[in-house]
Amino acid sequence: MRVLLTGAAGFLGSHLAERLLKEGCEVIGVDNLSTGQRRNLDRLVAYPGFRFLQVDVARPLEVEGPLDWVLHFASPASPPRYLKLPIATLLVNAEGTRHLLDLALRKGARFFLASTSEVYGDPLVHPQPETYWGNVNPIGPRSIYDEGKRYAEALTLAYHRAYGVPVRIVRIFNSYGPFMDPEDGRVVSTFIVQALKGEPLTVFGDGSQTRSFCYVDDLIEGIRRLMEVDYPYPVNLGNPEEYRVLELAQLVKELTGSPSPVTFLPLPEDDPRQRRPDITLARKLLSWEPKVPVREGLSRTIAYFKELLNP
Ligand code: NAD
Ligand code: UDP
Fold it and tell me: Based on the number of CB atoms within 10 Å of its own CB, is 22 exposed (0-12), middle (13-18) or buried (19 or more)?
């Protein structure tokens, strides 16, 4: 199997690349290093089947030789990062998705899109099934990401319908684990790093908004299974274990044994009030459900960040 994977230096892309390399696949990792980390590539270059291309996939892309799969993970993903890169975020999801679909079409490859629970916006239906159309502010600050992904989904299904490209789409709910960027501002990594450094944990708003947190190994297993199933429509993957953000802060304090206080900062504009995946479809289609409870996954992630901060 020969696979092209964009976003290979990122958190999720590097996990899936490593999984495929372990299975004996040849992986061409593509990344422009805009939000990715070089240390994520360090562990991939150890495999003889890995090759890296530093390329912006918002531009047309050609690679030599056959491809079986084109997997598109490239996109800024944390709110602070995509808010700093608004045009690049729109372009990698619009133009980038188009170029990668064209590549898949030329090579006769299967195409995968890493979409997001953000397509549901600030959801009025809870938990969110794939059939929910969402509640997205199309011109708010988060729209660059939400609408970028919604367009990417529409384009992916258009290539499937018009040209018969075999496609897979996952709507990923908040995922966490080792090799997250400690500085990209996502809530799990931020709270853990703050707790380990003894700094205040920054809860936005009153912390009553909810998220549901999926350990990365569970997510990767779900994606791996979906690649083998002939289903072109979006599938939710996430862990329905739902926490208020303030509860998460308290749990991180407990698991790290940190004396850090909790401090409250303003809630960002359009921050979704609640989010929890309905994973009925993934259960049926993939015989998949998350195995790692949040306490266990957080403990593993804390061990990773402890080592990273004090090698
Ligand atoms: P990440 O920021 O760690 O990784 C994204 C990678 O894409 C980075 O290495 C970055 O340098 C690269 N990239 C960005 N723009 C690029 C471009 N134009 N050309 C080439 N490379 C580019 O984020 P992540 O958490 O690994 O997310 C990966 C994908 O999964 C994203 O598409 C994201 O929207 C999606 N997703 C992630 C989560 C999550 O909880 N982690 C949730 C929903 C969706
Ligand atoms: N959040 C927080 N403190 C932080 C970072 C995030 O309270 O330092 C909150 C954020 O407002 C949101 C939730 O945690 O309600 C999840 O944020 P994240 O950026 O991880 O992902 P999102 O689901 O918003 O894309």
Answer: exposed
CA of 106 to the centre of ligand 2 (A): 39
Query: Which residue ranges does the chain devote to CATH 3.90.25.10?
Result: 187-210+242-276+292-309
Best residue for ligand 1 mutational test, from 11, 128, 168 (most atoms within 8 Å of Cβ): 11
Question: In this prediction, what percent of the chain has a pLDDT beyond 70?
Answer: 100
Pocket test for ligand 1, best of 52, 70, 75 (most atoms within 8 A of CB): 75
Q: Check if CATH label 3.40.50.720 holds for domain 2-176+215-239.
A: yes
CA distances in angstroms from 163 to 87, 103, 155, 272, listed in the order given:
28, 13, 11, 36
How far, in Å, CA of 124 to CA of 145, rounded? 19
Alpha-carbon torsion angle 45, 103, 73, 65, nearest 10: -20
The residues carrying an active-site annotation are 145
Q: Quick one: tokens of 84?
A: 């700093």
> Looking at domain 187-210+242-276+292-309, which of 1.20.190.20, 3.40.50.300, 3.30.360.10, 3.90.25.10 is its CATH number?
3.90.25.10
Is it true that the peptide bond before 60 is cis, omega within 30 degrees of 0? no
Task: For CATH 3.40.50.720, list the domain ranges present in the chain.
Answer: 2-176+215-239
Q: What is the pLDDT of residues 194-244, one digit of tens each?
A: 999 999 999 999 999 999 999 999 999 999 999 999 999 999 999 999 999
